[in-house]
Fold this sequence. Notes:
Elements lengths: L7 E4 L1 H4 L5 H13 L2 H4 L3 E3 L26 H10 L3 E7 L15 H11 L3 E5 L9 H14 L5 E4 L18 E3 L8 H8 L14 E3 L21 H13 L4 E3 L8 H7 L2 H7 L8 E6 L3 E7 L5 E6 L7 E6 L10 E6 L4 E7 L1 E6 L4 E8 L2
Parallel strand pairs: 1-2, 1-8, 2-3, 3-4, 4-5, 5-6, 6-7
Antiparallel strand pairs: 9-10, 10-11, 11-16, 12-15, 13-14, 13-16
Helix pairs in contact: 5-6, 7-8, 8-9, 8-10
Amino acid sequence: MLAPTPPMGWNSWNTFGGDVNEEVVRQTADAFLDTGLKDAGYEYVVIDDCWSLRERGPDGRIVADPDKFPSGMKALADDVHAKGLKFGMYSCAGTQTCAGYPGSYANEEPDAQTFAEWGVDFLKYDYCYKPAGTDGKALYRRMGQALRQTGRPILYSMCNWGQDEPWKWAASCGAHMWRTTGDIVDSWKSIQEIGFGQAGLECYAGPNRWNDPDMLVVGLYGKGNVGFAGGCADAEYRTHFGLWCLLASPLMIGCDVRSMTAFVHDLLTAREAIAINQDPLGVQARRIGEAWLHGEVWAKPLADGSVAVGLFNRTDSEPRLIPLPWESLGLHDRREAIVRDLWTCEDIGAFRGSYVAQVAPHDCALVRVRPCL
Length: 373
């Protein structure tokens, strides 16, 4: 399996948009090593849209922009691989990409072969400029087959923005992950709508088949290509990251990792939160409680028999006491269990029957409940 646990990495779009280039990619790969992101589990360095020339070459092959990528994609991929990382790229199922560059429609096989020859490990495949009357499922199936024909293991990330309920059919097209929503932007409103909107999709996720609620906006602070929505407070970024970990979402960083604040670095490398995301059981969290007064609770069963729980306060102004009764987790109400804070990596204590957390506005508590033997 190429994705036994949710993929982890970085994508250029949220910060750089069309300004991506070879220097940015090389420096980002270096930052993976220098900041400990690689050690934390992040491995894919992915170039999004705007990397090619506007026209294909005389042989019909897609051509990397020599001004942005003077060394060529093969050399860049080799450099990323030499650092122990994996290299990802972008294309589109339509005639053009979303930014107007050549898409892979009717060129799936030569494009897949080109990507394989360059050493690509990950392909994000978008959905703009699909010709009228064509079947989207067939287009995604066509690229999935073309990728397999290359003989190179390439993780297939399908990005049709949740149209036609891809969680029901994307895996049959060869996809390892698929977008369930429209594009995220750097705002609390966007995080809420997308993240908490994943309720009900948990039965479609699992090893090698992941629901993808889009990339992380942690650390953008209103800057970059999707920062126009105003940015978020640190507590809101913590809620964003904690929820994506519970959702078994791919963790694709979108900020400029070369200049992270200490808070952003510590959040993105929070080892016990990441362990929840990477748990081998591969279960996506489900919502088990929702009330304006008592907050919102999501639970994710783990391979060792414990349960990861997020307790979220979505109100704007007041702290909330958010209860967590054991019965909502499938535990007997007389069972004693150890509650561990996954942000501080410390045990809070042993509790019988329930636990209550006080949570600040727009923030979340992330805990692990481990039944005592």
